[in-house]
Amino acid sequence: MAEIRIENLHKSFGNFVAVRDSNFVVHNGEFVCLLGPSGCGKTTTLRMIAGLELPSTGRIRLDGEDVTMQRASQRDIAFVFQLFALYPHLNVRANIAFPLHSQGMVRSEVKRRVEAAAAMLRISHLLDQSVSGLAAGDRQRVALGRALVREPKAFLMDEPLGALDAEFRELMCDELRGLHDRIGATTVYVTHDQAEAMSMADRIAVMNEGRIEQLAPPQEIYDRPATTFVADFIGSPPMNLLACTAPGGGLAEGASSVLLSGQPVRVPRLAREVRNPNLTLGIRPEHVVLDAHSPLRARVTASEYLGTLQIVYLVVGSEESPLRARLRSDLEFRVGDQLGIALDPARISLFDAQGSALATTGSPEGARSG
Amino acid sequence: MAEFALRGVTKRFGKIEAVRALDLDAADGAFVVLLGPTGAGKTTTLRLVAGLERADAGEVLIAGHEVGRLEPAARDVTFVFQQYSLYPHLSVYDNLAFPLRSPARRWDEARISAKVNEVAELLRIADKLDNRSTRLSGGQMQRVAIGRALVRAPQVALMDEPLSSLDAKLRAELRVELKRIQRELRTTILYVTHDQTEAMTLATRIGVLDQGRLAQIGTPREVYERPASTYVASRLGTPPINLLPLAALPPSTFPQLRVPEHTALLGARTEHVRVRKTAGAGAAFVRWIEHLGDANHLHLRLTTPGDSPAQELITLVDPAIGLEVNDRVDIDFFAPLCFDAEGRRINA
Fold first, then answer.
1. Are residues B226 and B246 in the same domain?
2. Does residue A31 contact residue A180 with C-beta atoms inside 8 Å?
3. For the whole model, what pTM was predicted?
């Protein structure tokens, strides 16, 4: 197994920059998801690691070795595609064995590896069946088996579950993560589905317009988004982002209050001085609470009933962006109701005018890197 | 736009009965969502209304007319699939205009143009009309596919997990949009999903399917708060409803608990459960607290009497509740659901 090191990787297609000066390391045995909307550069990054695409500039190291200019076939990496291409005329065993036969491996070793892979994927009972009769999930398991038998240094997966129906996708997520825990192979996994990334990854790289906006464990991405893009891309519904201002045109180091719709709101203590007074306050819908005595007032514009919980859409003052609160369904609201609301200061993220998170200290969870 | 109905519809594939004697009524302008796991018969039901499958028994009625023998094209329904299927060589405008140019309609271009522009406004893609459909993002393409299905004002629009191939952010946005458009156009929609959030937020009525049978149909609130059976109750709610055998809840530990006669199972969701830390033996102890980003699930193990099997109870908790692993707690149940030995709900 292997470490993948990406250094100043850059790729343009004509005038279009697909990947911009990317730097990151996937540690040995780690499961990293590249997550982002379509066109963010996640698949291009993966294809460069695989050797299916050559970078414009930059380096790719596999276990320290520079493989940037090597052909895909020399890299000892297995690639699993979204549309699993199986050989329809071969049975499951022959499909899985295919890459080994083409390497000229001895039969007894091929047999051992195929059976080990099948056991790992729990498809031993299907080995002698034709692939054409298989269900979608089993076909994908066979495709994985074909990657697995090569015992590659790393697995690269490009939306491998995208072609499965939605419900089955959730099941396969658990299965893929279970498989990863059993074999511990370094894995880079591309998806646009945050639920997949959150449930499987050790770390998630959230990408936007060719850049990695944040690379961190799922909980950190969720709790402490590095940019407003990440805050708005992750979460369902996503983090509320509200324009706020620094009283007096700026905030000193250690300041812990901003103005939201004219009302002072307590926020985590700033680690550094901020000169630009135009800030964005981020708070997750579950951290907006009702407080009848709060001077911060909001008007109800809609609510979505979800069973135990509901999403209540609020407007604070003359704010344009809605504030979504996740509240218990036994609370009843009418459109137009005025409510007092409070925002849990420890859960607030602050972003500067460029959308980058401001470093803060003194929150109950301690210092944060932002 | 019309009402539609299924009467005693059965569909078999070989030995498998995919849909069994299904009765379903949808009023004009209703948004009916069929919810159920894979293999429950959701998609087959949809395809039966579309005419993509023929029923083995029973009737399919649209606007009061039996359509069981009609071809799909003659039924005046539209279909949106999970994967957007647009004509890649056509512009967004032409994709939307396509169903209106059907010779059967004999619409002149001015009328088509007016209609396309109206729908494009509604879908907020008016500025994209001249684009090639392949130049759109996934969310925009699916929006066009939905628009194409609604533009010709079909009797019924049929949708098979239309949002499930989109990322979560787009899915949530399009969900709100679809609901708004449906309200404005008053289109009758039959919509299939396995996503309970979609079902709860979109539907005027949710139909829960169980192995080809309609287990219950009702408003989201009815189905959630008054489920007909443990099966329906288990399909909705996160974390899922706790189903506890009454034998695991002895009066010595739960002196306040009153249940109707014949109760075999107690159904307890987060809103039915209050947990209090105790210094005594307690009714349960904390096994772990699962942090799921947007919610915390408290996993409790009940201190069950004698050698009966251990019972788990999972409920949503406030992060600030101040409980830790192995803490002892008492549990109060408030108006929980009660089910008999066959899993049917009993009115309390």
1. no
2. yes
3. 0.80
* Phi and psi at residue A135, to the nearest 5°: -70, 160
CA pair distance A3, A27, nearest whole angstrom: 5
pLDDT tens readout for residues B231-244: 999 999 888 999 99
Assign domain A229-361 one CATH number from 2.120.10.30, 3.30.720.10, 2.40.50.140, 3.40.50.300.
2.40.50.140
Residue keyed to tokens 């159904």: B267
Q: B131 CB near a chain A CB, below 8 Å? A: no
Minimum Cα–Cα distance from A285: chain B residue:
B294
Assigned token pair, A253? 């180091």
CB contact under 8 A, B201 and A304: yes
CA distance B21 to B37: 19
- Same domain? For B216 and B329 the reply is no
The verdict on a CB contact (< 8 Å) between A330 and B271 is: yes
| Same domain as B228, residue B247 | no
d(CA A309, CA B238): 9
CA angle (A88, A92, A94) in 5-degree steps: 85
**How many CA atoms within 13 Å lie on the side-chain side of A109?**
10
Residues of A in contact with B270 (CB under 8 A): 308
Encoded tokens for B286: 């904390």
Mean pLDDT of all residues belonging to chain A? 89
Which runs of consecutive H residues, i.e. helices, occur in chain B? 42-50, 92-97, 109-123, 138-151, 168-185, 196-202, 220-225, 230-235
Contact check, Cβ <8 Å, B172/A218: no
Check if B162 contacts A (Cβ < 8 Å). no
Q: Are A353 and A276 in contact (CB under 8 A)?
A: yes
The answer on B273 and B172 residing in a single domain is no
Closest CA to A340 of A308, A303, A298, A368: A298
Residue with tokens 């996740």: A326
**ipTM reported for the complex, 2 dp:** 0.74
Strand order in the sheet with A57-62: A16-26, A4-13, A57-62, A65-66
Tokens of A214: 């944040």
Closest CB to A167: pick one of B194, B201, B291: B194
Q: Report the number of secondary-structure helices (H) and strands (E) in chain B.
A: 8, 19
Regions of chain A where pLDDT drops below 70: 1, 82-84, 163, 165-167, 362-370
